[in-house]
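Example 3.2
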Amino acid sequence: MKKRSAPAPWLQTLRLDFREFVAEDFDDLFRLDSDPRVMKYVGTGKPSTRDQVAGLLARTLRYPILYPDLGIWHASRRDTGAFIGWFSLKYAGKSPDIEIGYRLLHAAWGRGFATEGAQAMADYGFDDLGLHRIIGVTHRGNKASQRVLMKAGLEDIGWGHYYDRRLRLFAAERGSVDCVAAAVTRIRGALVA
């Protein structure tokens, strides 16, 4: 069977390409979700099985059909084309809130990719979709993701109930002072680097 070519990126940052997932991305997703380090703060905290990843991929492929302009996107490095994980802008479980989400291969941790991708999702949500508010949620022990969300301009506002559990809640509103301050800080950091 001939392998289908991947779609072109619909969004790019300085170092990342974002594109829609295709069925042929199964192996990348399985490599991501079968790593216990990656899954420590996700769902049950256990690595996913092949069947669970197949279900996730099927839902991921359907999501933009059900909710145009939202989704979960394959993320790769622009310099090498290597898959690093995914980023999303989607409904937070059964709530009406739109959340930024991400999951990265362990090899991509600590390189600023999570912050870069999360900020791209926030910018897309506010600038292109005109969203008023965007949230992010984390397990209480996931300090690294909490820092990422704050660097991306979301403010820690305490606790919320999402995905049938109590999670740390972060939020930003369009035009908020914190969002603007975070953007200025990022621009200054990019100019210095």
